[in-house]
Amino acid sequence: MRTSATAQEVARLARVSQSAVSRTFTPGASVSDATRERVVAAAKTLGYRPNALARSLITRRSHIVALVMGYLQNQFYPLVIQQLSQLLQREGYHVLMFISDENETDGALAEILQYQVDAIVIASAMLSQDLAQQCVDSGVPVVLFNRLPDVDTTRPHTISVSSDNHEGGRLVAQHLVERGHRRIAFLAGLENSSTNVERERGFVEGLRDAGHSVWKRAVGHYSFERAQAATLELFEGTERPDALFAANDHMAIAAMDVLRHQLGLRVPQDVSVVGFDDVPQAAWGSYQLTTVVQDVPAMVEATVTLLKERMDNTAPARSIVIGCRLMERGSVRAAPSASSARASVRRKANVSPATRS
Amino acid sequence: MRTSATAQEVARLARVSQSAVSRTFTPGASVSDATRERVVAAAKTLGYRPNALARSLITRRSHIVALVMGYLQNQFYPLVIQQLSQLLQREGYHVLMFISDENETDGALAEILQYQVDAIVIASAMLSQDLAQQCVDSGVPVVLFNRLPDVDTTRPHTISVSSDNHEGGRLVAQHLVERGHRRIAFLAGLENSSTNVERERGFVEGLRDAGHSVWKRAVGHYSFERAQAATLELFEGTERPDALFAANDHMAIAAMDVLRHQLGLRVPQDVSVVGFDDVPQAAWGSYQLTTVVQDVPAMVEATVTLLKERMDNTAPARSIVIGCRLMERGSVRAAPSASSARASVRRKANVSPATRS
DNA sequence: CTGAAAGCGCTTACAG
DNA sequence: CTGAAAGCGCTTACAG
């Protein structure tokens, strides 16, 4: 069934040695033009392509990078898959995809390692630290994408690429305080994920520096459904939050839908909402979500840079943190309304052009 | 750097032959319990894992399946990635991801083939027929996912899994006609994609059978931005469509945002909107999009079934078409309003529970 | 059950 | 520049 020709067959047809065939397909190897032409012609008639598996066996480089992901409902991750695989492809690598299932991760990881991958990228806030550690232990370069290594795992081999989540959290705090919010709620993601921890820490610090604090808190576990439930929880009772910071856009959108369509509240008139990530949906007309931008292209580029450094051992191990910025859209009110904020400050109307409806 | 132990080293430590080590890790091979125990112990101390590349070289089975995708903004495709890779993983396969870039597809495909993949799944409505043909020509089993082979490529090797897009189109036509719509617009996807062709054909036939026809048509190329532009085009002029069928949810959502936030129209009171796919966003509170459900789990299962049939050659080549059904949400009006449909039929109010807002 | 040996398809010193 | 040869780490008849 596997009818593809071998180098041996090409050699026979071209009347050269098998070495010559190999050299023809090895950039930089020395072959005369005459030989090369004969080989190329023979290869063409036979439909020959070098067997990458055999090559990897002897070069000890598979040019395969494993990409480990969890939940793809959050559009942030498809973005990462797309951009990262395209860049890796351009760099001559191939992506072995691995969707982890919480349960059967260990066995599947073992299988990944059997494929002699040159490196592993772990891009999931939800992944067990255990799995990450196993990867590191295997001796294959590992880059944690969008998550920091646990403190007790900080070794030279554990490198990471992430946004400055702490700074992002501060930006949100400052923004909400500036807009006059006082009853500010936080919708947390996964409690033990570094993204959630850092965003919350920055947020809490930012509020504290302005003399405020988190007024109410609930946990959405980065899940759409649980974020909806958590939003109901935050808004039960008579005194409601006047602003909500969700630890990612995915949850912020879930929250907005609950606020508007289940609780009958207006965003941003009754409640301001801020997210984190800047996924494509955040820009959609129905949400116009103000959010913290994670610079995916920069994160992806940094990942590939680190990967190559690790694989070539050309530089000491290091991690990279990418800066964030706030993207203001229409989900945060321009000025406090006296009724909801009990603040009678009135500011100039600052209606975003995109907000008219 | 690559410090992982080899079977030879394990054999030495266990004082057995290298064959015995191999047999221990080959399910079904005959090894005595005593030998197996010694080998397993030695393997454990050395951290040995069989090298899958070397194994593939000799067994002529890589257990790698290539997954070729295009655009991931449409949430349908991440769903497919997730479900398909999880099922393939459970079946002992690994997914080599390939995001095609319209341009550099050919070279990258050649690389995929070098990795001796056992099969290729092409899951993109946007992929050039050329690429699909190349895959088929390579002799590796190819399954077209969510697209049909071109007529002139229909060979035993070109097998596909798709929804009954034609039937889906008919369902939408019937539904819109039943709800009293007469000025019905169609927002087309990629003109030459089989999904678009089939959905439109079914839609046109369904309207025709009811004595109607498509009132206006524009092309969104399955792109969010182009769908937005196409929507503006459809709704310019004084006589506007009273219903819109978009060839997928991704475009339907783009259209809804334009209708509501740029044109100030209400959905469904002023315009009904129907999509196709039933992506997670279709169920979001802001859209409540009525749509045709593509049964992704069934499609994925069918894909793996066909893949295995092809790889084992256990059954004649065949394609599978999965049935569709209409998921009614809130984006289609319950009864015709006299003003917009010029139909004075009045039907019983049929308010969906999800529509209150 | 077990081991020696051939061989999967390649790359890469080594001589010439 | 070129070819013969060794070897990457495995599996699998083949004898025993």
What does this structure look like?
The structure is a homodimer of 357-residue chains. Chain A has helices at 7-14, 18-24, 33-46, 52-59, 76-90, 105-114, 129-137, 165-178, 194-209, 224-234, 249-262, 296-312, 338-341; strands spanning 64-69, 94-99, 119-123, 142-145, 158-163, 184-188, 216-219, 243-246, 272-277, 290-293, 320-322, 325-327. The termini of chain A are far apart. Chain A is built from 13 helices and 12 strands. The first copy, chain A, has 357 residues and is α/β, with parallel strands linked by helices. The model of chain A is unreliable at 339-357 (pLDDT under 50). In chain A, helix 9 (194-209) links the parallel strand 6 (184-188) and strand 7 (216-219). Chain A has 3 domains: 7-50, lambda repressor-like DNA-binding domains (434 Repressor (Amino-terminal Domain)); 64-163 and 296-323, 3-Layer(aba) Sandwich (Rossmann fold), CATH 3.40.50.2300; 165-294 and 327-336, Response regulator (Rossmann fold). A 6-stranded parallel sheet of chain A has the order 2-1-3-4-5-11, sandwiched between helices. Chain A has a 6-stranded mixed sheet with strand order 7-6-8-9-10-12, sandwiched between helices. The interface between A and B is large, with 65 and 63 residues. Strand 2 (94-99) of chain A pairs antiparallel with strand 2 of chain B, so a sheet runs across the interface. The first copy, chain A, binds a DNA duplex (16 and 16 nucleotides) through helix 2 and helix 4.
